[in-house]
UniProtKB/TrEMBL annotation:
It holds the Pfam family FA_desaturase. CDD domains: Delta6-FADS-like. This is Acyl-CoA desaturase. It comes from the Bacteria. Residues 76-342 form the Fatty acid desaturase domain. Transmembrane segments: none annotated.
Length: 384
């Protein structure tokens, strides 16, 4: 037997969960079958859904831009800013993130094609797709491979070596939350590797060119062009646009961190995931993600990343199908004795910030989570 640190609570027993290689691969086949059923069912309902979301997003943006012309009256400024904030959240979460995962490529709609889509944020789409779609979703929660573990600036796992820099962990996290779209833009730079001399100028130069084009357009749009259009209300509109971007940043950070870093989410080493089978990949995705409970509107505003477990299992399936799939995924977790990490927003975000503060301290002050493990029989063990 090989013991992997799949440390989640077993709902059926006090001891560790023991899965044979046959069980792991059967779980993989059941998840494959679930995906196949949903993909075969995609059609008019899904097409209508994404068009409704796009219509709503554009409606909120037009309303927000229009209300800025009445920004000299505080109630209209507040309504306009809130409307723009909602528009940006929808564009980034339920439209941009999901479209760029290829969730709507089957529609053959040029405006919803993952290869050409651009979103309303400073990070160029091609750079985000490399750092997120490829690096993060391929190497989910594998230490030293998935750079989303701490984003290169935070200590979010006990396995990350501590140094005095991390005493400011809460400060770095707060800054990342406020300037989240810029942090996402810088993510593919791998700043720590540039500082360490592991990345050459030839690797960085194309990224800088992409930033100049994309971020330049965003800054011009939000902080120059639209404020100028409102004439004497320039500074009022500028403040409204900046606040709308802040609203989007705070929300996006919170939803994403709730899906990746609350209590119970697991990390893995490269050795543990070597020669990983399809079934084992599925197990890693389930144990390395967490969900947030909420109503339909909450799920829409989160881009359905409130179903982060289902998203990591099925990243190219339209996200509005995740609530439907979650019922079966949760049942499969119960069937095989695997944890299904879910909880309310305040519970999840509270545990995230608790971790941010706790891991700022030296290891001797870090208390390990005492939870049962998952023992997975690997093929070489069977042969032995």
């Amino acid at each position: 037997m090989t013991i992997l640190p799949f440390t989640g609570k077993n709902p059926a027993a006090d001891g560790p969960v023991v899965l044979t290689v046959e069980q792991v691969e059967e779980l993989g086949r059941e998840l494959d079958a679930l995906r196949d059923r949903i993909v075969a069912d995609l059609g008019a309902e899904d097409r209508a859904y994404i068009y409704r979301i796009i219509k709503a997003q554009r409606g909120f943006e037009v309303a927000g831009r229009g209300l800025m012309y009445l920004g000299f009256l505080p109630p209209f400024w507040l309504l306009g800013t809130a409307s723009l904030g909602i528009s940006k959240i929808l564009d980034n979460m339920e439209i941009g993130h999901n479209v760029m995962h290829g969730q709507y490529d089957w529609m053959r709609e040029p405006g919803l094609n993952s290869r050409v889509f651009e979103w309303d944020t400073v990070c160029p789409a091609d750079q985000w797709k490399h750092s997120h779609n490829y690096m993060h979703h391929t190497y989910t929660n594998i230490l030293d491979m998935d750079r989303d573990i701490g984003y290169g600036i935070l200590r979010m796992d006990q396995a990350q070596k501590w140094n005095p820099y991390y005493l400011a962990n809460p400060v770095w996290a707060a800054l990342l939350m406020v300037f989240f779209q810029w942090g996402v833009m810088l993510h593919d730079l791998e700043t720590e590797n540039v500082i360490a001399g592991k990345r050459k100028w030839a690797d960085v130069k194309p990224l800088l060119q992409g930033w100049r084009r994309k971020a330049g357009r965003q800054v011009l749009k939000d902080y120059v062009a639209f404020p100028l259009l409102t004439g004497p209300l320039f500074f009022s509109t500028l403040a409204g646009n900046a606040t709308a971007n802040l609203i989007r940043n705070l929300w996006s950070f919170s939803i994403i961190f709730c899906g990746h870093f609350p209590s119970g989410v697991q990390t893995f080493t490269q050795e543990e995931t070597a020669d990983e089978t399809r079934g084992e990949w599925y197990v890693r995705q389930m144990l390395g993600s967490a969900n947030i409970t909420g109503g339909r509107l909450f799920h829409i505003m989160s881009g359905n990343l409130s179903h982060q477990i289902e998203h990591h299992l099925f990243p190219d399936v339209p996200a509005h199908r995740y609530p439907q799939m979650a019922t079966e995924v949760r049942a499969l977790c119960a069937k095989y004795g695997l944890p299904y990490n879910t909880g309310g927003f305040f519970r999840q975000i509270g545990s995230v910030w608790g971790k941010i503060f706790t891991l700022a301290l030296p290891p001797r002050f870090n208390r390990s989570e005492q939870v049962p493990g998952v023992i997975v029989s690997r093929r070489q063990d069977v042969a032995a």
